[in-house]
Specification:
The chain is of the alpha+beta class. It is about 40% helix and about 20% strand. The protein is built from 8 helices and 5 strands, in the order E-E-E-E-E-H-H-H-H-H-H-H-H. The chain has a 5-stranded mixed beta barrel with strand order 1-2-3-5-4. The longest helix is centred in the last third of the chain and has 14 residues.
Length: about 200
């Protein structure tokens, strides 16, 4: 229904952002809302998916069309709903997810919240060989999961916001506590804390 929405970022929270367009505030759930924290009051374009079921109607938004396409494909996999698909995309690397599916890497896929062995196997069965439109130039060995920017200025608020975002994605207190001490040693933005945390959680 909506291909994209162009507007200004009015609010950023652990689960969603609000984009204002012509006096209307659109609540949009995104994989990592805090990537928009530095764009408050800035005009952006976000690619949207209008999700409608009997008990829910929601907008989901993505930085790129590739993320949106992968999200829609994940929704067609039995056992994966919108929240699960967002958690998978929150790693910020579409290539990484495609690589795992194409290489039948169940061990990697089950590290996402709500994805057990059965769902991981279903993802591979349903999607392997069908993701060319998402990553046309597919080179599994080019992606290096350790390459993330480390320089940033942040405080405890950024860390706390990142923890809230991880909980919203479905990670448990136990999983988060395991990686928290290491994260606290660094001074990062909320977005970078989330990416770093996901990097650790998916190892």
């Amino acid at each position: 229904m909506y291909e994209f929405i162009k507007g200004t970022v009015e609010f950023v929270g652990p689960e969603y952002i609000v984009i204002e367009n012509n006096g209307i505030g659109f609540q949009i759930s995104t994989p990592n809302p805090f990537i928009y924290a530095g764009k408050m009051e800035t005009m952006i374009t976000i690619y949207t998916y209008h999700y409608v079921r009997e008990d829910i109607m929601a907008l989901y938004g993505f930085e790129t069309r590739e993320e949106k396409r992968l999200f829609t494909k994940l929704l067609n996999v039995s056992g994966i709903g919108p929240k699960g698909a967002l958690a998978i995309l929150a790693s910020g690397e579409v290539q990484q997810v495609v690589t795992a599916i194409e290489n039948e890497d169940e061990g990697f896929l089950v590290k996402f919240p709500g994805v057990g062995k059965k769902t991981a196997r279903q993802m591979i069965l349903d999607l392997k060989g069908k993701l060319q439109d998402i990553v046309p130039d597919y080179f599994p060995n080019l992606f290096n999961a350790d390459q993330l920017p480390l320089s940033a200025h942040a405080n405890n608020t950024a860390f706390d916001e990142a923890i809230l975002a991880l909980k919203a994605l479905g990670y448990s207190e136990k999983e988060i506590k395991k990686i928290s001490p290491e994260l606290r040693k660094e001074q990062l933005s909320t977005d970078q804390y989330i990416k770093k945390a996901l990097q650790r959680l998916l190892k």
